[in-house]
Design brief:
This protein is of the alpha/beta class and 412 residues long. The protein has two domains: 1-41, no CATH class; 42-55 and 62-410, Spore Coat Polysaccharide Biosynthesis Protein SpsA, Chain A (Alpha-Beta Complex). The chain contains 13 helices and 18 strands. The chain has helices at 3-14, 29-41, 44-52, 77-92, 128-143, 158-167, 213-219, 222-228, 249-257, 296-300, 322-329, 383-386, 399-410, and strands at 64-65, 70-71, 96-101, 149-153, 178-182, 185-187, 189-190, 205-207, 233-238, 262-268, 278-282, 285-289, 312-321, 336-340, 344-345, 351-352, 359-363, 376-380. Strand 3, helix 5 (128-143) and strand 4 form a beta-alpha-beta unit.
Length: 412
Amino acid sequence: MNPKYEKAKQILNKYNQQHVLKFYDNLDNSKKEELLNQIFNIDFEQIKTLYENINKIEHKQNEISPIEYTDKSKMTQREKENYLEKGSNIIKQNKYAVVTMAGGQGTRLGHSGPKGTFMLGINPDKSLFEIFCDKLKEIKNKYNVVVPWYLMTSRENNEETVAFFEKNNYFNYPKEAVKFFIQDEIPMIDMQGKVIFTENGLIKQAANGHGGVFESMFKSGVVDDIKKKNIEWIFIGPVDNPLVQMTDELMLGLAIEKNAMAVGKSIVKLNPEEKVGVFCKKNNNPSVVEYTEITKEMSEMRDDNGELLYGESHINCNLFNIKAIEKIGNEKLPYHTAFKKATYINENGEIVKSQEPNCYKFETFIFDSFEKLKNMQILRGVREEEFAPVKNKEGLDSPETARKLYKAYYNC
């Protein structure tokens, strides 16, 4: 008998997941090898703990309070010039890099492919990837430097993403400055704590949330590459916001001026009821609080100037010092549980479909890293200049709304 198979069997027996090998003999040799590798790469102790904690009640009471912020629109001309000079100097010295989280598919947009390949419908039409690359080319032309660009893909879309860049000649950006790395995954489990299967007989896994960017940067060698290049500042943001300011010299200058480890970009909530996470202090540490975690009374509270006390929406545009990323990497972020509906193969080989949530997915959130950074700054931007998400096929945060905002901002 294959010793690798026997070792995998021992692992599964220990964690009561013996069903994983039930259909092993029906797989071809390559799938058998892939399944065994999955078993060795999965932390079943972690899965066991996450399942056991699903229904545990968290008794910890978090003390939530407002957080200070800097409003870009209210800066004096002198402040702006100071921040811009400090930020541009860092970029000129080749001490700046960009990480784009691009692991998602365009399914919700009705697009069959990586979300970054979605064409926004502007004139001339461009994909989200090309729109992002244009911003880096602007910096290249402005400062005569090439900003390293790291793209976090997924197992599902990495090959297609790389092929898209190759086909488009990297949008005339230096190919050697663009690197791809794959986000980690974690198994999904059913309501009994059993890992579930895809239709090809492998363990069904899902991306481990945007907080997984840090661990993936370490595992893939991105952090080593960044340090080798003596880069000090890294912007991390999503691929689905064509207005994201990836190279905001003012944001960078603010971090340097305030001696901050990180800066998060915010925009003001449209109204107290808007369902978004907002920056706050949690137990006196910088954090983000979900709209479900604060009372209606808190969400409506205003300061003496009439501003919402909890009105700084987190739009996932974040700047980190390399020392902050190293600190976060040494302290794993907590997993959050999401109860989802999924189609999968159960341990009896039957296809399971449901209109209701039927399995658990585990995710980490990037904003949980903020609590580890004592000195973090919040920079309030302007919604029309910073935020045009492309998430839904129609209606709010759709290509139509993003296109309108993009055209208005760039006057095109």
